[in-house]
Amino acid sequence: MSRPLERGTLGAAAGADLALYGRAAHRGAAVVIREYSSSFGLASRLLSPAIRPEVENIYALVRVADEIVDGAAAAAGLSTAQQAECLDAMEAETLRAMHTGYSSDLIIHAFARSARRTAIGPELLIPFFASMRRDLDPAPFTAEQLREYIYGSAEVIGLMCLRVFLLDEYVNDNERRRLEHGARKLGAAFQKINFLRDIAADYDSLGRRYFPGVEPRAITEEQKAAIVADIRSDLDTANAVIPRLPNGCRRAIRAAAALFGELTARIDATPAAMLAEQRVRVPTARKLRILAAALVVPG
């Protein structure tokens, strides 16, 4: 007959079990960014080892939620109402795990651990899920609805990552607000670039029209130019604050901004009519050169 464990031994064993579970959860989350995003995946490799896992955990949660509304759930046979139920359940479980520190869902558990370590709260998570629900509604966006959607779907992700970057860093309130503004603008730029690149595919396969007054399969050169100018303005604002970021993330964020800047330039050079026929990409060799350039710039 085995002897009962003393309280201290039992506590140590339980702690070891939770640590093992956390490591397994993170390994699962890390796979998601490698499978789903070449650009973010490459740029994230420039993050310091201390913060890279946290960013991978954030990316995994938002990607899995995004897949509920972007085709994977529908391909599995779920109706729109069932996709909404999945989002509701995922949001509720994530909020619960952020409070308790545990989830039986590995991706949610990984995110919740990062959220608890870096003070990511419901005020950032709830708008994200609100934007994901909006993707289930095919109604065109007004300008105000689009701003609200981009805040929840992209800007809050930038703010989540910023909380990771600033962990154990002292910044005063004015500096924090400046960095937060840059993080929001970078997230908004990334989202608008993806909207423009996938303008026809989003409409054809998902029935979405993000840009008010723009017909996805009849976008004009003038409309494209206005959207590109808006994206470049966001990127300029973000690039202005990148030098103020901590060393552990600066090169990675500079590389990510440069990758999307290159994609914007290629979209700008593509005739508007062609955006409905081809998905503009940055070749892998060019991506690697951009990453190499980010490495050699001081800080």
Note down, in words, how this protein is organized.
It is a single chain. With 299 residues, this protein is mostly helical. The chain has a single domain (17-296), classed as Orthogonal Bundle (Farnesyl Diphosphate Synthase). The protein is 73% helix and 0% strand. It contains 13 helices and no strands. Helix 12 (247-268) runs antiparallel to helix 13. The chain is globular. It starts with 6 loop residues before the first helix and ends with a helix. The mean pLDDT is 92. GO terms for molecular function: geranylgeranyl diphosphate synthase activity. This is Phytoene/squalene synthetase. Keywords: Transferase. Pathway: Carotenoid biosynthesis; phytoene biosynthesis. InterPro entries: Isoprenoid_synthase_dom_sf, Squ/phyt_synthse, Squalene/phytoene_synthase_CS, Trans_IPPS_bact-type.
